[in-house]
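The data are quoted verbatim here:
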Amino acid sequence: MHGAALYPGIVTHRRLWRVGHRLRYRVLSLLVDVDHLPALDRDLPGFGYNRTALLGLHDRDHGPRDGTPLGTWVRRAVTEAGLPCPDQIELLCFPRILGQVFNPLSIHVCRHQGRLIAVVYEVRNTFGDLHCYLVPIPEETAVLGHACAKAFYVSPFLPLDGQYRFRLSTPAERYSLSIRHERADGTALVASHTATRMALTAASLRRAVLSHPLHAAKVLGGIHWEALRLWLKGAPFHHRPPAPGALITVVTP
């Protein structure tokens, strides 16, 4: 229905810098065409767009978080970066379940006339800060590879310096993303998210809610639990700097 899908999957982290650490969690993601959200809200029982529902999504969950429609701010960002205005934007994110959500990373996949032109990685930390990396895509391949300088404080147990190296297979029957945090003295962290597509129907929506009723609490609780484990292991602590002045970093090749 309307091209939307659920993506049950697994997130893993493997920390290699100073103090070794691993984690693995099952998560649930939602893929939607942002222009189809009103129709989903109207036609799919249990789904809510900008309203309370079993499962859904709010404009204020993303971007400037002021209620600006998702398509509006993403299109503005992409065109301000000198790219064509996307005629299709797919968002992969954790959905609101029973009204609650926390998204450490959301991905906006932008196409123009059927061609992938940009990917926007939207990163959020537990302090309420937000930053986006907008990556122009000159040529679409089965696995996209790109890199950018780390510009945003995510964890008190990782330094701000270094760069991210991304390997992305955009959502289809399967989805995968790997992010390596590289520093001058080696790899600090390898994070991955893999998932398999499941059609979004009224029945699959209900099953998803029953399977993940406390998804947001699990995500936030997991972040703080792993932080406690790192602190107990003696991982170096890095104080939080001011958030970047700009909401978006445009990545240049």
Notes: The chain has one domain: 5-250. The chain is about 20% helix and 40% strand. The radius of gyration is 18 Å. The CA atoms of residues 105 and 123 lie 5 Å apart.
